[in-house]
Amino acid sequence: MKRLVTLLIISALALTGCESDYTILPSANGIILTADRSVTAVGEGITFTTKDNNNTDITAETQFYVNDEPIEGNIFTSEEVGDFIVKAIRLGETSAALPIRFHDGSETNFVKRLLIEDYTGTWCGWCPRVAWAIEKLHTQTEDFVPVAIHRPSSNPSSSVYDPYNYDTTELENFIDIPGYPKGMLNRTTEWSGEQPDNLAQPVAFTQGENPRLGLALSPVVSNGSISLDVNVKFSKDFTGLKLVVYVLENGLIYDQHNYTIYYGGVDIIEDFHHNHVLRGVLTPLLGEPIDASQTVVNNTFTRTFNIAMPAAVTNAANIEFVAFIVDAQGRAVNVRKAVTGDVQDFEEL
Q: 325 near 242, Cβ under 8 Å?
């Protein structure tokens, strides 16, 4: 009886937000403002670009402001150390504010990426809208790493059965947002609205203050075993950090329910290609603590994994590895992915 009640609760939570009666929110085209770098040394230039939500470059039609003062063109340079706020205005519409900073040349910074965790299901008709948004986001930026977390049941007789279900109950309890789909940005912020029409929100996560830590991965897969080095370099002191490492699989083929207008608006999408699917976690799901003695300026922390291939993986040639650091509040600080054979260097700026 207890098991039956549990299954009913899971089904009810799963269906929350995934029924066919759904309200499409208004489009949020707006102005998407980005900088080629958010932090640089004095005397160096920062170049700004604006696009709309359909990836049309509108830079030439935009007036840029730094600390509320208009600038000529789309490049700004400062000869003094300091913080500045940039905004862009076009046809009376104003972008979100973008912080930038000039330092004295002594800082080490790293390429900044966004982690997107897409909670989805083959049974979930509204879930393709997040997958579509992720595909569309590639037209705006490549500075993000997607992970598809399939939920919620591994029981083939269940109405919410998903052959790629991975139990992330602990993580979902932590974020405490019921229902599917949901796209989480850097673990703790929900991608809001109709995601394909709100690309500005995830793009904003790739901008602004530098994470001041970078990752470099070196995975090798051989004879059903994984050997993986995850290196993390710090350019300032941190405390309370944790490491999370995922094993993902691409090219999984299974029919996908679809209530959306995307992918031709057809339900069911036959032989849908499911990519970046979570198949294994090499650390605790909420992270493996890193001792504070390791997370200090100029230090490189290395965690080595020698482990059997997760049993869920169907084709080892299609796997990728994702490693990221979370802070004491559980937010992802920076993330990087790699495939077998990569020997990555730190992406210092």
A: yes
Q: Which domains are delineated in the chain? A: 32-103 (2.60.40.1930), 114-339 (2.60.40.10)
Instruction: List, for residues 171-188, the tens digit of each pLDDT value.
Output: 999 999 999 999 999 999
Q: Which of 263, 13, 26, 255 is nearest to 129 (CA)?
A: 263
pTM of structure? 0.90
Q: Which residues contact 113 (CB under 8 A, 6 or more apart)?
A: 143, 144, 145, 206, 334, 335, 336
pLDDT in tens, 212-249: 999 999 999 999 999 999 999 999 999 999 999 999 99
Q: Quote the tokens at residue 73.
A: 């063109």
Q: Confirm if 313 and 319 have CB atoms less than 8 A apart.
A: yes
Alpha-helical segments (H) within the chain: 2-15, 128-137, 169-175, 200-205
SS3 49: strand
